[in-house]
Predict the 3D structure of the following.
Amino acid sequence: MIEPYYQTDLGTLYCGDWLEVMKQLPDNTADLLITDPPYFQPAVHYCPPRGHKPQKRQISDMSIFKHFMRMFFDECSRVIKSTGSYYIFCDGQSYSAMFEGLFLYVNRVRPLVWDKLTSVNGYTWRHQHELIAWGEGFDAERVNTGDGDILKCKAVPVNERKHPAEKPIKLISRLIEKHNPECVLDPFGGSSTVALACVPLHVKWIIIELAEDYCAISKDRIEKEAQQLKLFPGSGGGVRHEMR
């Protein structure tokens, strides 16, 4: 049993492997999944031995990622309610594996485009967006707001990030507010931006992160956010925490 690294009335942070922690979570724990999992790219062989031809890239190198995603969504389908929704950050190379893994467990899968408004390094076509694989549970209520599927939001400046892949709180908040969930799960928590988005919305959160240094950063960020919102002992917020 993996005990919480940090726990408050607002949510729980686990330091450990996502699969080990999720296997101990009860069925139907969360209403919403928002996460940015690691994704693998096919191997590229740039430097063959002298006198040898370069090896061709093989799309079969993606098979380990497809297996990983199938295992991941199989566990998510137990933990996320059938009335819930999924948001998984990805890119153009990994979206197909996300679609294939998620397809069996939801009513529909669609790509959302996160437009970062400013392009960054690159050649020919410079990078300006990420994709989000959105899945809607079989029993989820339809949301009738009719928002477009291009979400415009500036990325977190590199020199301000606590994690290399940190997402803007404003963007995550928008996804949460779309569904008004009771609990949000992020199995690849990084520096816990999902938790920071949940706190002012009074939504419970469960974060899982393998690296203990990021768990320490997360604890500090969450406590500072709770203090700013006066969610600490004596204010009615009832925050408490337990460290391993």
